[in-house]
Write a structure and sequence with these properties.
This is DUSP domain-containing protein. This protein has eight helices and eleven strands. By secondary structure, it is of the alpha/beta class.
Length: 279
Amino acid sequence: MEIGDILSKEAYVLFYQRQSSQSMDDIRIHVRQMLEENDKIKVSLHRYISREWLHRFSTFSNPGPITNYDFLCQHSQILPRRAASLTDYYATISSSLWDFLYEKFGGGPSSSELHYCLTCQNEFQVMKRKREIELRAFLTLEGQLKRLKNNIPALTYGYYMPPNVIAKAWIDKWKAFVEENEFEPPGSIDNNIILVRSSNTCDAKLHLRPSQYVELPREAWLFLQSIYGGGPELLCIPEDHPSLESLQKLIAKVNEKIVETLESLKRRNADGIPLSSHS
């Protein structure tokens, strides 16, 4: 799709299309005239410009500054995650048309050559390995937990206590990261946003905000928290959530029971007694 085709698309924005001002209409007419003149004399196309911005230019009364960072990195070179389908994100225009658009709207950066950026490519590979390792480890953990629940449930936290919860906003960001819909990882876990106090007094009870959290096994919580940090740790107890001190005591008791179960299994194994899922 060439720039002329992009500019002719009128149905790109259906619900948010703004009323064009006379000045924008004049600019669009001038751009079309420049395109026609460039086509007649076969002007070389030496500048790259965002297709997304061209869509905004063709439909919005104010497209804002030119933004080429949807295909360029911060160093004005090829954005690594766009490299495989780079031509989907830019169009080529003449230097004179670029100068005209830049004078009217500003922005950028200007790009006349496309090269791979070693710095950003290395960072991209690091992030790629990170998401692959995290996703693989998380799926492995899920599989191990499923087998334990079926065979020796007493070795899982879920056998003794309610599941943990995590902020839906955070877990959605993490999923977007490992599924390659977001480049940046989500940052530290913030579960404070799903807590609400019943009153402003010091002895107020803590409650979980409905629909703001996702349940997950404590083992999965420990996995994510070990990577990203943050907190606080919360259980799926919507009303009157236990205090941090009470939660720590509960976890300590559960840890003791899991250790006792492990020791019992070791003794049975040493004595040649078959393992039972109800040990």
